[in-house]
């Protein structure tokens, strides 16, 4: 594995090697959480070199660590590899790049005996699958939710929600989709109090009802129930507290749902709002959904609001 930050890598190895035993692990855990916070505020391209450096440090130090410390290092490594895969995906890297790091995360989770982390990687891979490969998304989400491991309730709720989206994309009956969403709500109701989300803490610690409902709206959108998707997204984007990336992403889906519901002007205006949130940090998943919405708005290309959205997106990146 190579890193674009050679100087940073050397410095981190020298710095990290000063720590012993659990202090080394704590040092790397803190560095990974800092990288995740940087991503949340400035986007994937700024966080990616830091995450890559952390992975390289773990790769080097794990070869010489004691058995106990090595296991702890690889546990952090699994989290770092999954985060790095997410960053590559959000930054627009080819799918095989993210897949490499997801596979690395799964390998280290397996080596350390972390079943929930194995399931979580499957969930994240399901979320990364192109919606045109819905059958594979369904397989991965089902395995994450129902495999031979016990996910924490919040993570299980998100996996069941992703399963519902895949069901919608594969043309399942509305009652089958609703059943999976009901299971997600049941799992969430069994969770303890939400905690501030971190990259190294409990899986999906900050997952809450507003996020579940916003993601459920995406399932309804995929199932062709655009009016219900619009209602849910408008309600929960208004009242919920979302990180900038999530607000951009769900706003982009709201724009698409509005377009499908026959509201082209409102769809374009909402798309512009999402674009303002996503453009600076480069939140790639939100930008991809805005491009998808613009494609849906082609029949209304002459409307002023749609032209404005097209012009804004074209100046940012080719459509």
Structure description:
With 319 residues, this protein is mainly α. It contains 15 helices and no strands. The protein has helices at 6-16, 22-42, 44-62, 67-90, 95-111, 115-128, 134-146, 153-169, 174-189, 209-222, 226-239, 244-260, 264-279, 284-296, 304-316.
| Number of helical elements | 15
Q: Spell the H/E element sequence.
A: HHHHHHHHHHHHHHH
> What coarse outline follows from CA principal-axis ratios?
globular
What low-confidence regions span 5 or more consecutive residues with pLDDT below 50? Answer: 1-7
Number of strands: 0
Query: Which bin fits the share of residues in helices?
Result: over 70%
Helix/strand structural class: mainly alpha
End-to-end gap: 33 Å
User: What is the beta-strand fraction?
Assistant: under 5%
Strand count, sense and barrel status of the largest sheet are:
none
What is the alpha-carbon Rg in Å? Answer: 20 Å
Global mean pLDDT: 91
């Amino acid at each position: 594995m190579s890193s674009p930050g050679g100087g940073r890598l050397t410095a981190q190895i020298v710095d990290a090697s000063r720590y012993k035993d659990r202090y080394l692990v704590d040092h790397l855990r803190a560095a990974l959480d800092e990288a995740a916070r940087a991503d949340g505020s400035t986007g994937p391209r700024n966080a990616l070199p830091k995450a890559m450096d952390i992975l390289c440090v773990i790769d080097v130090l794990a070869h010489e660590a004691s058995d106990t410390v090595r296991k702890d290092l690889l546990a952090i490594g699994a989290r770092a590899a999954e985060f790095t895969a997410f960053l590559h995906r959000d930054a627009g890297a080819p799918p095989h790049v993210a897949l490499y790091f997801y596979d690395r995360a799964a390998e280290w989770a397996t080596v350390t005996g972390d079943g929930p982390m194995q399931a979580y990687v499957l969930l994240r891979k399901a979320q990364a699958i192109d919606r045109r490969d819905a059958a594979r998304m369904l397989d991965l989400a089902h395995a994450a939710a129902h495999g031979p491991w016990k996910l924490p309730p919040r993570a299980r709720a998100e996996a069941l929600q992703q399963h519902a989206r895949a069901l919608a994309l594969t043309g399942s009956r509305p009652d089958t989709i609703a059943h999976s969403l009901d299971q997600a709500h049941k799992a969430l109701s069994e969770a303890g109090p939400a905690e501030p989300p971190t990259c190294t803490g409990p899986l999906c610690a900050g997952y809450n009802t507003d996020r579940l409902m916003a993601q459920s709206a995406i399932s309804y959108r995929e199932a062709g129930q655009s009016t219900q998707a619009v209602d849910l997204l408008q309600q929960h984007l208004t009242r919920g507290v979302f990180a900038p990336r999530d607000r951009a992403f769900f706003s982009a889906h709201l724009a698409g749902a509005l377009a499908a519901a026959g509201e082209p002007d409102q769809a374009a205006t909402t798309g512009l709002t999402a674009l303002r949130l996503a453009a600076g940090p480069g939140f790639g998943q939100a930008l991809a959904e805005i491009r998808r919405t613009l494609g849906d708005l082609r029949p209304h290309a002459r409307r002023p609001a749609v032209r404005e959205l097209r012009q804004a997106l074209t100046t940012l990146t080719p459509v």
